[in-house]
Amino acid sequence: MFDPFARSETSLFCVMDEEGRVLREDAMPPLEDGEVRDAYRRMLFARTADALSVSFQRQGRMFTYPPNLGQEAIAGAFGRVMRKEDWLVPAFRELGAWIQKGARMRDIFKLWMGIEEGNRMSDAPRMLPPAVPIASQCLHAAGIGKAMRYRKEDSVVFAFVGDGGTSSGDFHEALNFAAVWDAPVVFVIQNNQYAISVPLRLQTRARRLADKAEGFGMTGLQVDGNDFFALSTVALAARQRALEAGPVLIEALTYRRGAHTTSDDPSKYRTAEEEQAWEVKDPLRRLRLYLESRRLWGEEAEQALLDTFRQEIEQEFLIAEAHPPCTP
After folding, report:
1. Which tens digit of pLDDT belongs to each residue from 283-316?
2. N or C end of the chain, less CB within 10 A?
3. Which of 256, 286, 288, 290 is labelled catalytic?
4. In sequence order, what DSSP letters do the residues of 190-225 get, joined into one string?
């Protein structure tokens, strides 16, 4: 298959432009039209669940919540590639990947309600609970990867971290150990430009976060994190490379369109002009334009789906909300 790691490492890997036009047919992932439609539906579901989660928090029915708006393509693409035997080691902004791994919305809602039972994600095999301490989950991913290599398992660990996490000691220790142990781990940096209010330029002098891979002797690649097709191609190649040659570092360049959490006010540290510039790069918008250009999607179908999604998500929330209160 097409190998994005064999291409130049000096530029951002992308497959389609901001208007949903395919720029590189040779780099398209092996997906049928129906699979692309399904991927868009899943991303749309994640966005709907995310928006409702913010609404539930604002109503006082849920505690602090980290919005996913603008980053759905990363979770959507890697979520599709993950297999049942693979491990998912999340941070806290990969809602679409959790769902594709099998997590139920009722459990996700319990998690953000402070109900410890929600951490179990019992229907999501080989998924660790979300990790709010920055980059601590990267060490867990390296250890799991070492164990799988020792047991000769044909499986991979997918570990997520934010751009701020790359400034943490845990991140660097995890990459070093994973490389030394030849562990099959795909580390995915969701570079959304801000670590809460700290812009990327104030936490690193590296030209690209993907370049940090070189210091640990592993392969690194920067990909357009709002381009579902590019992400899908990279995710497939990264999984195979991790199985064959050890850890891989992926930097997915994206933008957090919402707040860091519902306790945050991004207007304090970024401009409306910057937000508008990234809005046209929105991953759902781009994939929808692609589907519409091929007459595979329409506004009427989307509205009907949204109504169905809202009903399903609200029902899951009511189930979570009916859970008995936790006692000390």
Report:
1. 999 999 999 999 999 999 899 999 999 999 999 9
2. C
3. 256
4. EE-SEETTEEGGGT---S-GGGGGGGGT-EEEEEET
Q: CA-CA distance, 197 to 91, in Å (whole number)?
A: 18
Catalytic residue among 7, 150, 269, 294: 269
- Mean pLDDT, residues 136-154 taken together: 98
Alpha-carbon separation of residue 193 from 78, 156, 199, 201 (angstroms): 20, 27, 6, 9
Q: Which two tokens stand for residue 33?
A: 């039209």
40 is catalytic: no
Contacts for 79 with CB less than 8 Å, ≥ 6 apart? 42, 94, 96, 97, 99, 100, 101
Task: Quote the tokens at residue 178.
Answer: 């994973």
Q: What pTM did the predictor assign? A: 0.97
Q: Which of 126, 260, 286, 288 is catalytic?
A: 260
Report the relative pairing of strands 194-195 and 198-199 from DSSP bridges: antiparallel
* Residue 25, C-beta contacts closer than 8 angstroms, at least 6 positions apart: none
Asked if residues 68 and 45 have their Cβ atoms less than 8 Å apart, the reply is no
Identify whether 260 is a catalytic site residue.
yes
Average confidence (pLDDT) over 278-286: 97
Question: In angstroms, what CA-CA distances link 288 with 8, 73, 124, 284?
Answer: 29, 12, 28, 6
The amino acid that residue 232 corresponds to is S
326 confidence band (pLDDT: 50, 70, 90): confident
- Helix 72-81 crosses helix 33-58 at what angle (to 10 degrees)? 130
The sign of the CA dihedral 73, 76, 82, 87 is positive
Would you tell me how many other CB atoms lie within 10 Å of the CB of residue 184?
27
Strand residue runs (E) in 104-235: 157-162, 185-191, 194-195, 198-199, 219-224
In degrees and rounded to multiples of 5, residue 103 shows phi and psi of -65, 140
Residues in the chain: 328
256 classed as catalytic:
yes
